[in-house]
User: What shape does this take?
Amino acid sequence: MPARTDRTTDPVLKAQLLLARRGQAFFSRALAELRNHQLDVPSLVPGWTRRHVVAHVGLNARALTRLTEWAATGVETPMYASPEQRDEEIEFAATLPARALRHLSAHAAVHLDVEWRDLPEEAWDATVRTAQGRLVPARETVWMRTREVWVHAVDLDHGASFRQFPPELVDRLLADVVGAWRRRQDAEHLPALRLVPVDRPADAARATAGDEPLVLVGRAADLAHWATGRGATGVRTADGDPPPAPPRWL
Ligand code: ZN
Assistant: This one.
């Protein structure tokens, strides 16, 4: 029988689900504040209108629903058939009438949430594969969705800001980005960087490998904004210079 509340009792996972749901509400509110004609203008994602962002976030929920169903049933269902198929689907959905686009966004989010709610405790540790080919436990879908909804709400470029994010989200984003850089550092010859949030304890600084890193200073939210490639407001080097463009995140 379908549950009305999450079947998992894991307190860590429940807190992560709450952060994802708050992010969905943050995104949905930002979308609701946009009139239909305002969807046609560029977003903060290069080459994408707000329509593309809404389409992508809705389709991302569907893709993560497929991973959650995979965990529940053991039947392999990838996020996307291929990167080309993913991109084509976004391009197509971005052309939908505004009402249909909003429906896609809302319905896909609810569907994902229902799949999460009904996922049995043990299935959260079932292995699934991300679009990048990483093997992860199903519980990782919660973080994958969390970063999408919060960051893309900002990409709608209608007033939402990293400074409105909960501190634990900002900290996890910083850890996520710097961790991604570290994993790719040798292969892509990424620079040694050290991010120092001025509004956190000293041990919250995060760095890639290497001696004499370039030190970047700012509020944690501004560092996360810069590190995810969204702009350099509020971030300076230790010498007070503007920061360079960050390496790509994902
Ligand atoms: Zn995205």
Observations:
- The chain has a mean pLDDT of 95.
- The two ends are 38 Å apart (CA to CA).
- The CA atoms of residues 71 and 126 lie 5 Å apart.
